[in-house]
């Protein structure tokens, strides 16, 4: 805030003169330091309760009865709301798991990111950037999330209580977790629009059959030499077993959802193409859908017929 005032002062003096400067300075709203300190203290108390004391009774001095927490995890996943009761249950569950799993969490606010905006005498907005760290089984601490939060506070019977919070994921791959900056490629552009559209059409047909349990149609689009790599299930080289597994575990239970705009297609000379994309899954036994995950499919063109020869499914 002081730096911003200094810059404003210098600019006004250089270009408009002292009299205009005086008017400009008068228009800058003064920071309510008392409110800033009070809401900062409640922020610290919240995470002391969540990660250390586990004294849920103290939450009554922080949250309004109708508090709602909104978690926004980016473009491809719907924002999920959470009531105060559910929020408390999650803190309680975390406290119970902490000792059992020999794990601990720590949260810090990025220095200088905390802000408070007054909206009249009984309402305020508090924003900041936060980082969460996890230590497990005595191993080195790792950062697991970086997010920006925005909270609404209301003054109720003389006490500032939080009525809502929105957390938006800033970085799902924090620098300190990888040890280096994550590489960001240039925007994808297909080498051949016609080929790209063909593979998108194949993907739609293949997973349309997957979603509707049309196993004969899937079988026709899979090579007899199929290799299916699953990061959790391992390697399967039996087309018959893959189809049987889909019939047993997927049919009528799971729906695949393609992440729009995620498909990339790269031609492979004298073979076909490699397709890369992201998709999520909705299980009828569970609410919502899974986080988008990467898949890779090698399509071979032989005698005018496209078939999937290699499928890699990652989570």
TrEMBL record:
This is Uncharacterized protein DUF4440. The keyword Signal applies. The lineage of its organism: Bacteria, Pseudomonadati, Bacteroidota, Sphingobacteriia, Sphingobacteriales. Residues 49-162, 199-307 form the DUF4440 domain. Residues 1-24 form the signal peptide. Pfam families: DUF4440 (PF14534). It comes from Pedobacter nutrimenti. Coiled coil: none annotated. SUPFAM superfamilies: NTF2-like. The keyword Signal applies. Keywords: Signal.
């Amino acid at each position: 805030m002081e730096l911003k005032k200094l810059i404003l002062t210098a600019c006004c003096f250089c270009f408009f003169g002292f009299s205009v400067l005086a008017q400009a300075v008068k228009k800058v709203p003064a920071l309510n330091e008392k409110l800033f300190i009070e809401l900062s203290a409640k922020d610290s108390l919240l995470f002391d309760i969540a990660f250390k004391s586990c004294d849920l009774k103290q939450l009554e001095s922080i949250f309004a009865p109708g508090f709602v927490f909104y978690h926004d995890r980016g473009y491809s996943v719907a924002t999920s709301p959470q009531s105060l009761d559910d929020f408390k249950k999650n803190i309680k569950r975390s406290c119970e798991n902490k000792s059992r799993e020999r794990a601990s969490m720590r949260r810090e606010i990025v220095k200088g990111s905390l802000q408070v905006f007054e909206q009249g005498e009984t309402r305020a907005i508090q924003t900041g950037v936060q980082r969460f760290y996890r230590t497990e089984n005595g191993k080195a601490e790792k950062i697991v999330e970086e997010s920006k939060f925005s909270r609404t506070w209301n003054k109720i019977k003389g006490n500032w209580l939080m009525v809502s919070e929105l957390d938006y994921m800033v970085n799902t791959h924090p620098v300190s977790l990888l040890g280096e900056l994550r590489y960001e490629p240039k925007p994808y552009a297909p080498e051949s629009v016609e080929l790209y559209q063909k593979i998108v059409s194949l993907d739609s047909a293949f997973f349309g059959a997957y979603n509707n349990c049309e196993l004969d149609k899937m079988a026709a689009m899979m090579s007899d030499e199929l290799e299916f790599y699953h990061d959790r299930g391992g390697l399967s080289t039996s087309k018959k077993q893959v189809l049987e597994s889909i019939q047993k575990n997927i049919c009528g239970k799971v729906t695949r959802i393609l992440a729009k705009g995620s498909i990339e297609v790269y031609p492979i000379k004298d073979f076909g193409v490699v397709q890369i994309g992201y998709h999520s899954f909705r299980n009828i036994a569970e609410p919502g859908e899974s986080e988008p995950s990467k898949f890779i499919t090698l399509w071979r063109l032989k005698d005018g017929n496209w078939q999937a020869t290699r499928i890699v499914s990652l989570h």
